[in-house]
């Protein structure tokens, strides 16, 4: 049914507004994820000087959060089957706050090793949040708007990146340098970490107000509580049929399957599709494409010193892309969005790869600084890549992860899919600098190949979930 033809009662509209509010609160965890990543990006040079780190040690500091995210993601989904989706999300706040406070104080509490520990702890928090949040939002959302509400996760990450870029700019301007003192012996990079307290505190204040997922409540036999939540989320008084449908989808079992049981179950193929989807999201180059962004902007007259201006330009395209994805995902469908967006992604990667292939060699690799045409082509391709990724593979991976798995396995399956996402992300971040140093053209042609394979994979193996209830998944 076309969305514009749906006529909602005032109570149903109120219910949708309530579900939207819950989705916005839950996405504060992913906002912290984006905020934390950009904060470290601004502080990493100063951190390297503070602890006299080489390039490898700085890389480990950058990857420590991803390692924590992997650990958190593998634990969180299954843990949410025991203590509830809300229960896990409530636990996230202290992990985020720990990194915010003690990451700033690490020079006095153990130095570099303690900094790594703080980043791993914070990573466990946002890894758990980004794993459980899509499933929670899927379980409290009306099917009509479920895709757009889960897509808020991607928008939250982007806004977190933007807010952190503003913080980094302010701190650097106040101190003159991220290694300089701001007040009372506290340096600018430490203040950047302390600013993480704000999103962590807001998260901890608001999270207790969300209800438990009705699907989890039914799985534990707490049908009366589930009915009350469903009544508010659906805008109707009679939710008996919905509760019974959830019970049937659980197959009469009140204990969700564990990770190893899932991999031995009839749904193992579906879970492998989810894990492959996660891998392709990272292998399409979402992190690697930014490695040469400074070089590309310098080629068209935007110097590296204007980092904030570059961030603003990139953020504008990200917001346009993710807004388009939010508006279209429930109209066009998940599968078609992945295919259309994926096509724009691999075409953009092909342009960037071609630029580096034909560019003349310089002392530090391909040199496009003397060719305005190549420079503008590369920057245009970068912006098109952002539009393609943030409207499709960025948000829709979260949508699919939250809704493609049946109720019996959702917790464990989300852990496996999110774990695959963090693991491949770690490999890309670790290996890409070495590959691109050897040959930027080869690196981007490799991403192009993965982009093509991602579209083929989506066409062949993904089943459309748009408009279906969660109880229909896995049939």
Explain the overall architecture.
The strands form 2 sheets. A two-stranded antiparallel ribbon has the order 1-2. It contains 20 helices and 4 strands. Helix 2 runs antiparallel to helix 5 and helix 4 (85-104) runs antiparallel to helix 5 (111-140). Strand 3 and strand 4 form a beta hairpin. It starts with 9 loop residues before the first helix and ends in a 14-residue tail after the last helix. It folds into 2 domains: 1-210, MFS general substrate transporter like domains (Growth Hormone, Chain: A, Up-down Bundle), CATH 1.20.1250.20; 257-475, Growth Hormone, Chain: A. The longest helix is centred in the N-terminal third of the chain and has 30 residues, at 111-140. The protein is mostly helical. It has helices at residues 10-26, 28-50, 55-83, 85-104, 111-140, 146-175, 188-194, 197-206, 214-219, 223-234, 240-249, 259-264, 268-283, 293-299, 307-332, 334-358, 372-391, 393-403, 410-438, 440-461, and strands at 181-183, 186-187, 361-362, 365-366. This is MFS transporter, SP family. It is found in: Cell membrane.
Short description:
The chain has 475 residues and is an all-alpha fold. It is 75% helix and 2% strand. One of its GO terms (molecular function) is transmembrane transporter activity.
Please write out the topology:
Blueprint: H1 10-26, H2 28-50, H3 55-83, H4 85-104, H5 111-140, H6 146-175, E1 181-183, E2 186-187, H7 188-194, H8 197-206, H9 214-219, H10 223-234, H11 240-249, H12 259-264, H13 268-283, H14 293-299, H15 307-332, H16 334-358, E3 361-362, E4 365-366, H17 372-391, H18 393-403, H19 410-438, H20 440-461
Antiparallel strand pairs: 1-2, 3-4
Subcellular location: Cell membrane
Transmembrane segments: 18-35, 55-76, 88-110, 116-138, 150-170, 182-206, 270-292, 312-330, 337-356, 376-401, 413-436, 442-458
InterPro entries: MFS_dom, MFS_sugar_transport-like, MFS_Sugar_Transporter, MFS_trans_sf, Sugar/inositol_transpt, Sugar_transporter_CS
């Amino acid at each position: 049914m076309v969305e514009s033809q749906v006529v909602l009662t005032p109570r149903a509209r109120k219910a949708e507004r309530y579900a939207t509010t819950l989705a916005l609160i839950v996405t504060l965890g992913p906002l912290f994820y984006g905020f934390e990543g950009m904060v470290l990006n601004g502080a990493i040079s100063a951190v390297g000087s503070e602890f006299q780190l080489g390039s490898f040690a700085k890389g480990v500091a950058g990857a420590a959060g991803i390692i924590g995210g992997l650990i958190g993601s593998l634990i969180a989904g299954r843990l949410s089957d025991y203590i509830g989706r809300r229960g896990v999300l409530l636990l996230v706040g202290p992990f985020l706050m720990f990194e915010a406070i003690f990451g700033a104080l690490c020079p006095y509490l153990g130095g570099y090793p303690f900094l790594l520990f703080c980043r791993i702890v914070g990573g466990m928090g946002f890894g758990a949040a980004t794993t459980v949040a899509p499933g929670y939002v899927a379980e409290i959302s009306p099917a009509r708007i479920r895709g757009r509400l889960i897509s808020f996760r991607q928008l939250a990450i982007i806004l977190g990146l933007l807010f952190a870029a503003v913080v980094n700019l302010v701190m650097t301007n106040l101190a003159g340098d991220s290694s300089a003192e701001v007040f009372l012996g506290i340096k600018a990079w430490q203040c950047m970490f302390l600013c993480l307290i704000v999103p962590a505190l807001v998260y901890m204040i608001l999270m207790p107000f969300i209800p438990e997922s009705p699907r989890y409540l039914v799985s534990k036999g707490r049908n009366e509580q589930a009915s009350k939540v469903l009544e508010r989320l659906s805008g109707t008084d009679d939710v008996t049929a919905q509760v019974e449908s959830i019970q049937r989808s659980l197959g009469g079992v009140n204990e969700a399957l564990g990770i190893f049981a899932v991999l031995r179950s009839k749904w193992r193929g579906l879970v492998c599709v989810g894990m492959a989807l996660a891998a392709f999201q990272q292998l399409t180059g979402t992190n690697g494409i930014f490695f040469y962004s400074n070089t590309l902007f310098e080629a068209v007259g935007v110097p590296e010193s204007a980092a904030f201006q570059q961030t603003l330009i990139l953020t504008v395209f990200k917001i346009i892309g993710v807004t388009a994805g939010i508006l279209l995902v429930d109209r066009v469908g998940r599968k078609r969005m992945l295919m259309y967006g994926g096509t724009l992604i691999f075409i953009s990667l092909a342009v960037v790869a071609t630029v580096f292939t034909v560019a003349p060699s310089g002392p530090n690799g391909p040199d496009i600084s003397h060719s305005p045409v190549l420079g503008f082509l590369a920057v245009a391709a970068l912006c098109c890549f952002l539009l393609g990724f943030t409207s499709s593979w960025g948000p829709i991976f979260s949508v699919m992860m939250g809704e493609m798995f049946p109720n019996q396995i959702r917790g464990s399956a989300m852990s496996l899919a999110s774990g695959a996402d963090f693991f491949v992300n770690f490999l890309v971040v670790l290996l890409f600098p070495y590959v691109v140093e050897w040959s930027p053209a080869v690196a981007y042609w490799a991403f192009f190949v993965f982009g093509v394979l991602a579209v083929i994979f989506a066409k062949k193996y993904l089943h459309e979930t748009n408009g279906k209830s969660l109880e229909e998944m896995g049939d």
